[in-house]
Amino acid sequence: MKAALLTGIRQFEIREMPDPILTNETDVLIRVKTVGVCGSDIHYYTTGRIGSQIVDYPSIVGHEASGIIEQVGKKVKRFQPGDRIAIDPALSCGRCDQCKAGREHTCRKLLFLGCPKQLEGCLCEYIVLPQRCCYPIRRSMTFDEATLSEPLAVGLYSVERSMPVAGSNVAILGVGPIGMSVFHVLRTKKAARVYVTDMIEERLAFSRRLRPTWSGNPKINDVVKEVSQMDPLLMDIVYECSGDPAAIVQGIRLLKPGGKLIIVGITATDDVSLPMHELRRSEITILNIRRQVHCTQKAIDLIAKRKVRIGPLVTHRFRLEETQNAFDLVASYNDGVMKAIVDVS
Ligand SMILES: [Zn+2]
Ligand SMILES: [Zn+2]
Predict the structure, then answer these.
(1) 115 CA distance to ligand 2 centroid (A)?
(2) How many angstroms does the Cα of residue 100 sit away from the middle of ligand 2?
(3) Which pLDDT score is estimated for 268?
(4) Residue 253's Cα: distance from chain center in Å?
(5) Ligand 2: distance of its center to the CA of 90 in Å?
């Protein structure tokens, strides 16, 4: 099979590799259809790491994927060849304290697709996975939508964890695919006012399709001042989806006393300085989001029932051979890119 191998900083090579084979009776062989390029993949591409997770070259990245079941192990009952699926890229052990507590996403032995030293990713023609990672999708759902169920699940989980009540005022800082996923999910709830920011004008324009109360560019607007003029009591919840340390501080200043800062974005560096006295005096809750748990099926259902129209997030498509171009585009934020899809088939 063909695979896009990450061989160095900003460097992919398309190579011929042996086809993966079924070894476990509960595994399935999947023909990969589409793979979404995620911001986390871009961290691996441009810097070779996220924090202490360092890429061993060569390796295959990619974890937002859809496919078709090609072959099933002897004990697989839920699937047969030809079934169309979305993929949950997380493999938990099912036995540790975290798994037993329903926190499979922080499993002590978690293996995640396309994560260094864990599992190879999906930017290749075939992968083998346990059947429990596979979610059937209806004929009416496109492979792009199935792929986007992964970031949507992260948005869904972020909103569930933050528990907005009817009438909550919220801000989303950074409306890339994850910020937009949060926004889409909020639109299925009764959040009163949604303020959004981004440094990229095309992304702000994109977000206006969901009718935010206000949208602003922190390069141009004094975000805290303008938002506090419109809503003097400030925000109940801020979703930080940009990974920019300046936005984290801005998020704190946008919150009312007792407000919640939900950190979804991934910062490029480990150390971020926080205004501790402001946090303390306003008793701000900071909640970190680690991907998602138990939200894959719910995200698929939101798309299937047309409660969320996630498909339009796809702005660019590439062939597997053009993986490097896809990553260069997403890393540059050029051409109004929101979600780039690598079409493997
Ligand atoms: Zn992702
Ligand atoms: Zn576990």
Answers:
(1) 17
(2) 7
(3) 87
(4) 25
(5) 11
133 CA to centre of ligand 2 in angstroms: 15
299 alpha carbon – ligand 1 mean position (Å):
14
pLDDT tens-digit readout, 172-218: 999 999 999 999 999 999 878 999 999 999 999 999 999 999 999 99
- pLDDT digits 0-9 by tens, 142-177: 999 999 999 999 999 999 999 999 899 999 999 999
Cβ neighbours, 10 Å, residue 267 = 18
Cβ 242 vs Cβ 265: under 8 Å:
yes
Q: 0.90 cut: is pTM over it?
A: yes
- Name the amino acid, one letter, at 81: P
> What ligand is nearest to the CA atom of residue 89?
1
Q: 39 CA distance to ligand 1 centroid (A)?
A: 6
Instruction: Quick: pLDDT tens for 286-329.
Output: 999 999 999 999 999 999 999 999 999 999 999 999 999 999 99
Q: Which CATH architecture has domain 2-136+310-343?
A: Alpha-Beta Complex (3.90)
Domains of the chain, residue spans: 2-136+310-343, 154-288
Distance 103 CA to ligand 2 centre (A): 8
Collapsing DSSP to helix, strand or coil, 251 comes out as helix
- Residues 6 or more apart whose CB falls under 8 angstroms from that of 222 comprise none
Which residue type sits at 111? Answer: L
| Ligand 1 center–CA 154 separation, angstroms | 8
Q: Is the model's pLDDT at 120 over the cut of 90?
A: yes
What class has domain 154-288?
Answer: alpha beta
Total residue length of the chain: 345
Q: Among all ligands shown, which has an atom nearest to the Cα of 104? A: 2
The bound ligand whose nearest atom lies closest to the alpha carbon of 97 is 2
